[in-house]
Specification:
It is built from 10 helices and 9 strands. It is of the alpha+beta class. A hairpin with a 3-residue loop joins strand 7 and strand 8.
Length: 310
């Protein structure tokens, strides 16, 4: 007499085969690396050596020569791909960083809205010290044009205009700046305005600014703008001009491809520069230098980090 299969028996069989399938899958996954390792080993290369080779392709390689001496009070050189430090000089010392913080203003402006939106200048945007490009109250510009003028010509009035457009006020924008800074790992910075003019309680460090610079370097729009030596600009009233990039290192070194200058009496000369040579890409931050030394020192560190012999 045939045995009747109960619902309970059916569920038991289904459960058994389902778990058997899972067991076979696990055994397959376990055995695959072993087989692969044995195959690699037979050719004289283990799977672990292969993984190390892949990792080494992205490892920051320190230059074989000593770093040059510089005058700047604080500095850092990092590998742009990995973020690893190649050279530091008082990199965690809190200092004013002037207009180099406009990189943060640009990042925030690009994250909200779209590039081609219209931005109308408010009278309060013009209430700022030079350097300015002298945009006028009531004029309307495309946001992308203002961001370009911010990064190339470093207009403080442009910074105020973009900040108000983003957050409604300078105070609200400073909160956005600090929130963004923390998200980038900048825990030793405090920003109070979008342009970098000196104000009590505003500071950063060379290391923090290198983190910001790395985010800016890998932002396609910022990178394409900051490498421009000259920027054609059309004012809302029809007047045309050409702004020269404040970063003179673009003219001095063919390896330089950005990023941003800064200067106030309190900060001294500051420069964040980036460069590329073959597969090497680095970022150099120098804070608290002098007009006489900032370009030479930045070029020396940039070329040193890229492995270029002088």
């Amino acid at each position: 007499m045939a045995k009747t299969i109960t619902q309970k028996d059916l569920f038991s069989k289904v459960y058994f085969f389902r778990n058997l399938s899972r067991l076979l899958m696990i055994l397959t996954l376990i055995s695959t690396p072993i087989a692969t390792a044995q195959s690699n080993k037979s050719s004289g290369k283990s799977i672990f050596a292969a993984n190390r080779s892949a990792s080494n392709a992205f490892r920051a390689i320190r230059p074989s020569t000593p770093a040059p001496n510089i005058i700047g009070k604080a500095a850092i050189v990092i590998d742009a791909r990995t973020g690893r430090s190649l050279y530091v000089k008082r990199a965690d010392e809190k200092r004013p960083v002037a207009s180099t913080q406009k990189l943060l203003t640009a990042l925030l402006s690009l994250e909200k809205g779209h590039m081609n939106e219209s931005v109308t200048v408010s009278k309060s945007d013009t209430w700022v010290e030079p350097s300015k490009i002298y945009i006028q109250s009531g004029q309307t510009y495309r946001k992308s044009d203002l961001i370009a003028a911010l990064l190339v010509r470093s207009g403080n009035d442009v910074a105020r205009c973009l900040a108000r457009n983003h957050s409604g006020s300078q105070e609200a924008f400073s909160l956005a700046m600090n929130t963004k800074a923390r998200s980038l790992g900048m825990h030793n910075s405090n920003f109070k305005n979008p342009h970098g003019l000196t104000v009590k309680g505003q500071f950063s460090t060379a290391r923090d600014m290198a983190m910001l610079a790395r985010a800016a370097y890998y932002h396609r729009t910022i990178r394409s703008i900051t490498q421009l030596k000259r920027l054609p600009f059309r004012f809302a009233n029809g007047k045309k001009t050409t702004f020269n990039n404040t970063n003179k290192l673009l003219q001095r070194s063919k390896y330089c491809n950005g990023l941003k200058t800064g200067y106030t009496n309190a900060s001294g000369r500051c420069l964040i520069s980036s460069g590329k040579n073959g597969q090497k890409e680095i970022i150099v931050v120098i804070l608290g230098s002098t007009s006489k030394n900032i370009w030479n020192d930045s070029e020396k560190l940039l070329h040193w980090g890229l492995g270029i012999k002088s």
